[in-house]
Amino acid sequence: MTTKWGFTKKLFLCGMIFYFSGTGNTKWAAKSIAEALGEQLVSIPEVRDNKCNYHLKEGEVIGYCFPTHGWQPPRIVRDFISRLQINQAEGHYCFALTTCGDSIGKTMEILCKDLEKAGLPTPKSVFSLVMPESYVCLPFMYTDSPEREHAKIEKAKEQLATFIRLIKAETEGVTHTVKGAMPWTMSHIIGNYFNKRMVTDKKFTVDKDQCIHCGMCQKVCPTGDLTFDGDLPSWKHDQSCTCCLACYHHCPRHAINYGSITRKRGQYYFGHRTPIPQK
After folding, report:
1. Tens of pLDDT along 144-153?
2. Average pLDDT, the chain
3. Contact status, residue 94 vs residue 124, Cβ threshold 8 Å
4. Nearest to 223, CA basis, from 241, 203, 235
5. Sheet with 40-43: strands ordered across
6. Contact present, 162 and 126 (Cβ < 8 Å)
């Protein structure tokens, strides 16, 4: 039996790095790790509706890469883990990496509890990678300045190279994360509220005078939440939205907004052309 993405209900794949990415920060990190390790990259949105049964060969690695959403793993990642099955997973090296704009709170502790509950091995080492900010839907949240964006990416490249060396060596016991102030409060109080109440597509709007009907928003949406109502994009309101803001950030005319708060906010996605600061 196949899903709407064309994947079979039962999958047998080799060593793998599961990832979710909205604006590309995590995809860049996950792809870099997968290429260095020679492991397969698996997009969580593409297989999330499958009852997947993965099989590992000797020496293969399990990895989880995702952005931090509200100081927690994204809901799409947590739901996927609750249904994930990996045959012969014991004894295989496992790691997890999360990208963030600032700090992650108790994100990795939450991930480990989800994995334990699903009967899956927990990571031997965990990492957080500070990347340019992309969440702009709160009054105090903005994209980074070009200077700060450039500095974050350059530092992230150096850190990721170190993380890859540690992962290739199957190093255990490494916790290289930035938890920030009040990590428990941020994850379990503010994070719970954010992920239960604020992850919704109901506030997205389109300025029809600005929209050029290019379809970019639909193309980049990782969960397929966007359709077109005539010439304008329309969200499905079926709870598939992760509020990753890929549609907002990729719009070439800034025609998409989240309520009114993002109308004067910046846009960012990994690989876009931001002027590099002159030294």
Report:
1. 999 999 999 9
2. 90
3. yes
4. 241
5. 40-43, 16-19, 62-67, 94-100, 125-130, 175-176
6. no
Tokens of 94: 């496992």
Contact 62, 16 (CB under 8 A): yes
Cα dist from 97 to 3, 7, 124, whole Å: 28, 26, 11
251-276 pLDDT, tens digit each: 999 999 999 889 889 999 999 865 55
Q: Is the dihedral of CA 225, 230, 233, 234 positive or negative?
A: negative
**Cα–Cα distance between 140 and 41 in angstroms, integer?**
34
Q: Residue 8: its pLDDT value, please? A: 37
CA distance 47 to 185: 32
- Look up the pTM and report it: 0.91
Amino acid making up residue 155:
K
pLDDT tens track for 169-207: 999 999 999 999 999 999 999 999 999 999 999 999 999
